[in-house]
Structures are given as C-alpha cells and as structure tokens.
Design goal:
The complex is a heterodimer of chains A (about 110) and B (about 120). Chain A is about 0% helix and about 50% strand. Chain A is mainly beta and about 110 residues long. In chain A, strands 2, 4, 5, 6, 9, 10 and 11 form a 7-stranded mixed sheet that branches. A 4-stranded antiparallel sheet of chain A has the order 1-3-8-7, with no helix packed on it. Helix content of chain B is about 0%, strand content about 50%. Chain B is built from no helices and 12 strands. In chain B, strand 8 (about 65-70) and strand 9 form a beta hairpin. The chains are: A mainly beta (about 110), B mainly beta (about 120).
C-alpha cells in the first residue's frame, strides 16, 4: 500500500513564475490538506480539499490555489512566485480518523 | 485561537536515558493532540495522538505521551532513548469542537541522542 506521494521532490523556479505541485493520497483517503513549512518553522496550513471543494483555508493569499480530482488526488498552484514562497510543501491526507498522514514533501526554491 | 508551544529548540539526551520533549497548547474546545517526527529532507511521520480517554497514550517506536488537561500539556516521552531517535519532533493541535480541520504545529524540537 503506497503512502502519500508527492511530485516533484525538488524544483527551482524564478520569481514571477507559476508552479504546480501534485499529491496522491494514501489508499482510501479522501481528504487532502496542504501545508507550507519554511526553514526552521513548523508547517503552516494552506487549505484542505474534500469532495473536490475547498473546505477550509488558512491565511495565505489568493496566489495559492488548489484543486482536487475525482480520484482524490490534488494539486497546489502558486502564481506570481516570490522569494518568500521558498519552502517545503507538504501534502497530508485523512480518511475517517483525525490523524493526518504526510507525504515526503516538495522542496520549492524561488530564485 | 489555537496555539502550540514547544519551549525547547533542542533536547540532548544520552543513549539509554529517558527522554521528554515538552509541548503546551491552547484551544477553546476539545483538543485533539498529535506528535509527529521529521527526519532530514523528509515529510512528517505520525507517532501518536490523543483524542479522548486514557491520558497516557502509546505510539510508534516506543514513544508515549501524557495528556494533562489542567496544565494544557502533552509531553512526549520514551523510557530509553536510541541514537536513531535523533530527529525533529513536532507537536500539533486541532480544535475538535469547532469544526476546524487545520492542524496548528509548534516550531519543533530537535532531539539529539548521544552515543
């Protein structure tokens, strides 16, 4: 049983560009959350998707958007990248229990 | 508002000795509490949770945590530390009463187990 998988593992983008990160949930998990972890910090909640809709959103600007597909996989899109968007982006998935299971993350570097 | 505090940036302990990593929380409703561990360049691995019931919860790799409602604490413990336990540990809280789904994480505590 594969766990939560994220792609790509690393990428480098230039300021002003757009990026799409992808997440495939653990088998049977229907809820996907995205977190941003800056260097030396704890993860910060971006948003959560359930039944293909954004269910809750954290304090992130509209440049951050997402999507959930019928197979429960999800994408995180970030437009107009800033240097401060450099971080580890983590996907977390849930089924019925409250504990979330995390992927290995995507390390985004904006130059 | 929810918050989590991990007062120690780093904890050093000798191999074989007991370890404690501290966490205090603030939440207006019922706390759902979690501990996660992060190894270098990896995501977070779930260790254990407290939702309700017995205040002492047992998790993976011999870790346990004690929920103390009066002190709003949820300290992570292990009776005998291993060098392989060296990693970054995060405490997280979710308000189980408010309908929110987001976790609030602490800033993390780096555990170093010395051989």
């Amino acid at each position: 049983d594969a766990g939560v998988t994220q792609s790509p593992t690393h990428l480098i983008k230039t300021r002003g560009q757009q990026v799409t990160l992808r997440c495939s949930p653990k088998s049977g998990h229907d809820t996907v959350s995205w977190y941003q972890q800056a260097l030396g910090q704890g993860p910060q909640f971006i948003f959560q998707y359930y039944e293909e809709e954004e269910r809750q959103r954290g304090n992130f600007p509209d440049r951050f958007s997402g999507h959930q597909f019928p197979n429960y996989s999800s994408e995180l899109n970030v437009n107009a990248l800033l240097l401060g968007d450099s971080a580890l982006y983590l996907c977390a998935t849930n089924q019925t229990g409250p504990e979330a299971f995390f992927g290995q993350g995507t390390r985004l570097t904006v130059v | 508002a929810q918050s989590v505090a991990q007062p120690e940036d780093q904890v050093n302990v000798a191999e074989g000795n007991p370890l404690t990593v501290k966490c205090t929380y603030s939440v207006s409703g019922n706390p759902y509490l979690f501990w996660y561990v992060q190894y270098p360049n990896r995501g977070l691995q779930f260790l254990l949770k407290y939702i309700t019931g017995d205040n002492l919860v047992k998790g993976s790799y011999g870790f346990e945590a004690e929920f103390n409602k009066s002190q709003t604490s949820f300290h992570l413990k292990k009776p005998s530390a291993l060098v392989s336990d060296s990693a970054l540990y995060f405490c997280a809280v979710r308000d189980g009463s408010s309908g929110t789904y987001k976790y609030i994480f602490g800033t993390g505590t780096r555990l170093k187990v010395l051989a």
